[in-house]
Design a protein that fits this description.
The complex is a heterodimer of chains A (117) and B (229). Chain A has helices at residues 5-23, 28-38, 47-59, 85-105, and strands at 26-27, 63-70, 73-80. Chain A is α+β, with helices and mostly antiparallel strands and 117 residues long. Chain A has one domain: Orthogonal Bundle (Arc Repressor Mutant, subunit A), CATH 1.10.10. In chain A, strands 1-3-2 form a 3-stranded antiparallel beta sheet. Chain B starts with a helix and ends in a 9-residue tail after the last helix. The longest helix of chain B has 30 residues, at 59-88. In chain B, α4 (59-88) packs across α9 (192-220) and α7 (126-150) packs antiparallel against α8. Classes of the chains: A alpha+beta (117), B mainly alpha (229). The A-B interface holds A 27-29, 32, 46-48, 51-52, 55-56, 58-59, 61, 67, 70, 73-76 and B 23, 26-27, 29-31, 33-35, 56-58, 62-63, 66, 69-70, 72-73, 76-77, 80.
């Protein structure tokens, strides 16, 4: 089943923060592939949505960047700013709390049976 | 990936999408190359791999939209970094330089503001002309900036990138703002001591803001006033 782009868009910053809190430095393509890998291809972040989300988090000062030359190309890496680790954890906790409340509202009967992965 | 295929990706980004922001193009190029290489490894042709990667981004229009998002973020980062540099002017490492520059600027402003009829001269001399010419340069750059995507032919004259455009605008606005406030204060009827205090405050603030802007320019792009490629 395809995930609604709206649902995915709303959770994008949470996904980015979670991945970066686990892996320190990551680049755009790597983030897309990691999500695909973790969800066995069930969730697919489009690049057209990922980069604006990364830029927004960078503008808010939550993410910092560094550029490294890899195979002759400049590669931009993203990481959570040292002084924003707590802020990122708070954001993740907020989303966790929201998901918990959502689960309390939705009964198991409301869920459509997901295909086995 | 062959050099021709790499060149095709760069051509798509710079010619078809008409992107101009260097840092954004570099990030997109890297993403495109990695993505296309992964698809080539899955036995797709280069054309198919490139088309699929473009689809991942939502097409050419969406890539252009992303460049505007990049610019908006750049603007926010610039303001944040600039303000941090303004604060850093009072840090121990820069304090002496700041005091010397602010002291000199304040002394000159007080001398010209209080001891001479500088206001009468200012409207006719090179300072006022600098405002007009600065305005002409800024408006020309802004026009080229907006026209370069609609009419790529203008790129032959030179490429105007957003970071450069913003730095020029900030330099210009600081100068014009300080000059207009200076003229405004000079026309006010107030005790000489108070007037001197206003001049000192104005030019000290101007000097600190300008020093921070110079530091920012040196930190981010030390040798680009104008680029033709």
């Amino acid at each position: 089943m395809d995930t609604s782009p709206q649902l995915l868009k709303g959770s994008l910053s949470a996904i980015i923060l979670k991945l970066l809190s686990d892996s320190q430095w990551m680049y755009g393509y790597e983030i897309c592939q990691k999500v695909k890998e973790l969800t066995s291809g069930q969730l697919k972040i489009t690049e057209g949505a990922l980069y604006p989300a990364l830029y927004k988090l960078e503008a808010e000062g939550i993410l910092i960047t560094k550029t490294q030359v890899v195979e002759g190309r400049a590669r931009k890496y993203y990481s959570i700013a040292q002084d924003q680790q707590g802020n990122a954890q708070d954001k993740l906790a907020q989303i966790g709390h929201f998901l918990y409340q959502l689960q309390r509202i939705l009964t198991p009967d409301d869920f459509i049976k997901l295909p086995a992965t | 990936m062959t050099q021709t295929q790499h060149a095709d990706i760069v051509t798509f980004l710079t010619q078809t999408c008409q992107l101009v922001e260097t840092a954004f193009i570099e990030e997109m190029t890297d993403h495109f190359v990695v993505s296309v290489e992964a698809r080539l490894a899955d036995s797709l042709s280069f054309e198919q791999a490139l088309a699929l990667t473009i689809d991942d981004f939502g097409g050419r229009k969406n890539i252009q939209k992303m460049e505007w998002t990049y610019r908006k973020v750049f603007l926010k980062s610039l303001v944040r970094d600039w303000w941090a540099l303004v604060e850093s002017q009072f840090a121990k490492a820069k304090r002496l330089r700041t005091m010397m520059v602010v002291g000199l600027v304040t002394f000159v402003s007080l001398y010209f503001g209080l001891m001479t009829d500088f206001t009468g001269v200012i409207e006719r001399n090179v300072l006022w002309i600098s405002v007009q010419w600065g305005g002409v340069i800024w408006v020309t750059m802004l026009t080229l900036f907006f026209l370069q995507r609609i009419a790529p032919r203008f790129k032959k004259v030179g490429v105007v990138r957003f970071p450069t455009l913003l730095r020029r605008l900030l330099s210009y606005l600081l100068w014009v703002g300080a000059l207009l406030l200076y003229l405004g204060i000079s026309t006010l009827e107030m005790p000489l001591l108070l007037k001197g205090f206003c001049y000192s405050g104005l030019w000290s603030a101007f000097a600190v803001l300008y020093l921070a802007l110079l530091d920012y320019s040196m930190k981010t792009d030390p040798d680009s006033w104008y680029q033709t490629r």
